[in-house]
Amino acid sequence: MTTPARVGSIAFAGVLLFAGPAAAQPAKSNCRSAPTAQGTQTLRCEAAITIVAESGAKFELRDRNRDGQVDSVELSNKALLLEVPKKPGRTKFDVVTPQAIAAVRGTKWAVDTEGAKTSVFVVNGRVSVARSAGRGSVVLGPGEGVDVEASGELTVKRWAPPRVAALMSRLGQ
Predict the structure, then answer these.
(1) Minimal CA–CA distance to 138: which of 147, 52, 68?
(2) Half-sphere exposure of 85 (CA within 13 A, CB side)
């Protein structure tokens, strides 16, 4: 469900998805969609990319380099868990939110956006997180997270087990 103005502004016909039991994934994105018993939606895309969307998450898949494969996600609400294996020659995969850009090559991480804050947590691998406005960036490792808001420092923290468990639970993990 993309607005006509938005269709004209993007080269790849991205798909706005509302994750949930009845969400469908068009074949054009080269991803297969399957709802889960936990209410999440799992997308399995070419190049072994897996995206788990929290029920009600609003996001759009993108193909920035127009090679027919998803290489970016725009997330506007709720959480995604992403797993992108490292492959030689692959461009970085990123998640863009109103507050942040999280970019990786070969990792598993979660991005959660709500209101004026985006939180990024790394399960394994490394993720570079920058403000969308371009002021500051950090690199996260396994077990680390950062909260990105319009102002303030980007502070990398080791997330407490209850915070990690709460986020992963929302993602059916």
Answers:
(1) 147
(2) 8
pLDDT tens, 55-70? Answer: 999 999 999 888 888 9
Which residues, in sequence order, are CB contacts of 172 under 8 Å at separation 6+?
36, 37, 38, 39, 40, 52
Of the pLDDT bands very low, low, confident and very high (cuts 50, 70, 90), residue 29 is: low
CA distances from 123 to 36, 56, 111 (A): 21, 22, 11
Q: Is the dihedral angle over the CA atoms 70, 71, 77, 78 positive or is it negative? A: positive
Q: Could you tell me the CA-to-CA distances from 146 to 1, 36, 110, 116, 152 in Å, in that order? A: 31, 28, 11, 14, 12
In the chain, the amino acid numbered 91 is T
